[in-house]
Amino acid sequence: GFVCEALPAGPAGARVSNLWATHRGGRPGPTLVLAGHTDVVPPGPLERWASDPFVPSHRDGRLYGRGAADMKAALAAMVVAAEEFVAAAVVAGGHAGTVALLLTSDEEGPALHGTQHVVACLRERGEHIDACIVGEPTSVRVLGDMVKNGRRGTLSGRLTVRGVQGHIAYPQLALNPLHVLAPALAELVATRWDDGNVHFPPTGWQVSQIHAGTGAGNVIPGELVLDFNFRFSTESTTGALKSRVHEILQRHGVDHDIAWTLGGEPFLTPAGSLGSALVAAIVAECGSSPALSTTGGTSDGRFIAQICPQVMEFGVVGDSIHKVDEWVDVAAIEPLKNVYRRTLDAFLS
Fold first, then answer.
1. How does pLDDT run across 32-56, given as a tens digit for each residue?
2. Is 235 a catalytic residue?
3. Whole-angstrom distance between the N-terminal and C-terminal Cα of the chain?
4. b or e along 200-224 (b: 16 or more beta carbons within 10 Å of the residue's beta carbon)?
């Protein structure tokens, strides 16, 4: 009974598959979306896996395979929860509002043609979303011990420092960009960008790569390229962070350019109807109340939050994600489905 709409996007030869499926209950009410991604990261060296990473293997109470935890188990649980909810609602005469499934396949890569594309389509059509659960593997030790109610923003930069190449024995005839950058780099590392707040830790700045040199040991390099990243809280803005970086570099006399990439703004879901329904479902199914957290990396929630006021993430234990022999506890999958089902019952009753 779902209306299923394919929303593919991307260039020829690299098309991304996206599915938007909705079931309207016949009575007025909110729209609740269950969302997740089907794409996975590469497996790494195949010889290090105990079994084929792309053939599910069930042993010792675990299901092994690339994407088992991140996040195919949650997608399966979401689909079955939605099916069960709708089937029961049809028998009872219908449900309120709309239940929707958003399945995309461009989260682990550039994230341009998956959820971001679907969000643009929904915004253009004026479709309203009230709440969304993303099935990211948020649990830490046992199912239900943590829910993400927001995420930090991510802002990356590629810094190019210009110097003058020359012979290493004649430094007076050259300008070493490594030496020029060093004092500014020390200040950037030591800077406290903000103090965070009750929901977010302080903003952090990290270097991921640095490249300089010609490969010869007797040549002063003429250029340096450094990649860095901010994971920032709602206490900072992208404009303010950019300005502070440029100010530090200029004050130290660094001749530079920066190419900036905004991966996503921070978002936070305050206490409300979704949080109440999801937490109550976790307590009922798992027996304990989850911690609310905004830690970790980014997710497609950052795009959904642009058109949806309540976005939360909940899924299985994420200890093995992106690792060799990724796994999910089989015993957790049915309770996970039940948490999603209970949330649907409460939100769309």
1. 999 999 999 999 999 999 999 999 9
2. no
3. 18
4. beebebeeeeeebeeeeeeebbbeb
Q: Is 47 part of the annotated catalytic residue set?
A: no
Joined together, the tokens standing for residue 228 give: 């860095």
DSSP notation for 79-135: HHHHHHHHHHHHHHT--EEEEEEEEES-SSS--SSSHHHHHHHHHHHT----EEEE-
Cis ω before 312 (30° cut-off from 0): no
β 62-64/150-151 pair status: unpaired
Task: Give the span between the Cα atoms of 85 and 340, in whole angstroms.
Answer: 10
- Please spell the DSSP secondary structure of 198-217, one letter per residue: SSSPPPEEEEEEEEE--S-T
Exposed / middle / buried, residue 316 (Cβ in 10 Å: 0-12, 13-18, 19+)? buried
The count of other CB atoms within 10 Å of the CB of residue 290 is: 22
Mean pLDDT across the stretch 71-98? 96
User: Which amino acid, 300?
Assistant: D
Q: Which of 5, 70, 83, 107 is catalytic?
A: 107
